[in-house]
Design a protein that fits this description.
alpha/beta; FAD/NAD(P)-binding domain; D-Amino Acid Oxidase, Chain A, domain 2; 2 domains; 8-stranded mixed beta sheet; 6-stranded mixed beta sheet; 8 helices; globular; binds flavin-adenine dinucleotide; oxidoreductase; FAD dependent oxidoreductase; FAD/NAD-bd_sf
């Protein structure tokens, strides 16, 4: 009998899982993705798309490497390149962070990454106009880059459709029907769809979807804000992405195709769901200007040409929750990418698809199981050190 897979969510997680399932699975797999709005219209559509590997945790470094490898070779997915550009990534620390920073770079190298340590006096050769004051050490990853999250998600959708996946937009999932141990059907605005397997890739709404099957997923909302600036001189597309953790607040800069620069990482307040998002206001833009004034003064007075904010979904250890929870046999969660989940989505999509098909995943999915919190096995990393955080 054909296996019917229902996927909830048309962001980069749901669509990458749909694509890899349709690539690896047999013809009798019937895959349907349900998106309540338009594809990539929530967190994925707001993402800065930075692809880097500077993380504290070994598992996350390996996941980020696999994600980047898949984005590098993205043309094989429906012919789109996903907007991937390999501009490199430069990260800075102050004197207090140097020991941890060196240990992290050693860990990255052991995982097979190319990483160079950069003295403060050499920063100018990576980023013209940079003021090195307060920087004790930098690290440069030449294999890092950025991609266009909207293109990546919609290219996955195109590839999945070509492989026979049905993608239904404007179709909210309103309930999951269970028989006590498994989900038997997905209830949507268009009616009931029987399923053998259901994937919960509903992003910030993953908690609500899981609760429909009686599963409690700890997922909080935070708001990530960015602004796009246009300086007198372009921030070239080959210029490295900068992540500055050498002074507070943290800040990242990423080139936009066309010479603008995207600035973020400065403000990430928790979201009061009843009140909604704060949005980008004058105080955020002032903080951007002040931060640039000290680190990249040539952009301090640059014109703000765009700005936005989006919800990021954050778990207690800031790492994803992936896999089948205890008590429900056929529900696959793929949630909680926080402010770093885009780059890892292709790696999760590939490995979750393999796991659903009963094959060995390429990355360590077990480390991301929901039960790790109760087992005292939470992952270290993102929330511990500021320079392991967003993007
Ligand atoms: C401003 C910003 C900057 C970021 N920058 C980076 C970065 O530089 N690098 C990086 O790696 N990551 C970054 N991230 C994080 C990254 O974008 C996310 O981790 C990733 O996009 C999450 O994708 P998702 O598919 O889980 O969620 P989403 O894209 O939110 O997709 C979930 C989908 O589920 C749908 N849905 C919800 N409920 C239902 C329902 N009941 N029925 C049907 N559909 C439903 C939603 O409409 C939505 O489209 C950033 C995020 C933000 C907001």
């Amino acid at each position: 009998m054909a296996k019917r897979v229902g996927i909830v969510g048309g962001g980069v997680y749901g669509l990458s899982i749909a694509y890899y399932l349709s690539e690896f699975g047999d013809d009798d797999l019937e895959i349907t993705a349900f998106e309540r709005g338009a594809l990539a219209s929530e967190t994925t559509g707001y993402s800065a798309g930075i692809v880097r590997h500077h993380y504290t945790n070994r598992v996350q470094i390996e996941t980020a490497i696999r994600g980047r490898e898949l984005l590098e070779g993205f043309e094989s997915v429906a012919g789109g390149d996903g907007g991937f550009r390999q501009n490199g990534y430069l990260v800075l620390t102050d004197a207090d962070g140097v020991d941890e920073f060196r240990a992290l770079v050693d860990r990255q190298r052991r995982a097979g990454l190319e990483v160079d340590l950069v003295e403060a006096t050499d920063l100018e050769s990576f980023l013209p106009g940079i003021d090195p004051a307060g920087v004790a050490l930098g690290a440069y990853e030449p294999q890092a880059g950025f991609a266009d999250p909207y293109l990546v998600a919609t290219d996955y959708a195109t590839g999945a459709r070509e492989n026979g996946v049905e993608i239904r937009t404007a179709t909210p999932v309103t309930d999951l029907v269970t028989d006590g141990t498994a989900v038997t059907a997905v209830e949507t605005s268009e009616g009931r769809e029987p399923v053998d397997i259901v994937v919960n890739a509903a992003g910030p709404w993953g908690r609500e979807i899981a609760s429909m099957a009686g599963v409690d997923v700890p997922l909080e909302w935070y708001e990530s804000k960015v602004a796009v600036l246009r300086g007198d001189e372009p921030y070239g597309v080959e210029t490295p992405t900068l992540s500055d953790h050498s002074e507070s607040p943290d800040m990242y800069l990423k080139p936009e195709p066309g010479g603008d620069v995207l600035v973020g990482g400065i403000d990430r307040p928790p979201v009061d769901r009843a009140a909604g998002l704060q949005g980008v206001d004058e105080s955020f833009l002032r903080a951007v200007g002040d931060r640039l004034d000290s680190r990249l003064p040539t952009f301090a007075d640059a014109a703000v040409v765009d700005s936005w904010s989006g919800v990021i979904s954050v778990t207690p250890d800031s790492h994803q929750i992936v896999g089948v929870p205890t008590g429900v046999d056929n529900l696959y969660n793929a949630l909680g990418g926080s402010g770093h989940g885009f780059k890892e989505a292709p790696a999760f999509g590939e490995s979750i698809a393999l796991s659903i098909l009963g094959e060995d995943p390429r990355i360590d999915l077990e480390a991301y199981r929901l039960e790790r919190f109760a087992d005292g096995d939470a992952l270290s990393g993102v929330s511990e050190k500021s320079y392991g955080g967003d993007e």
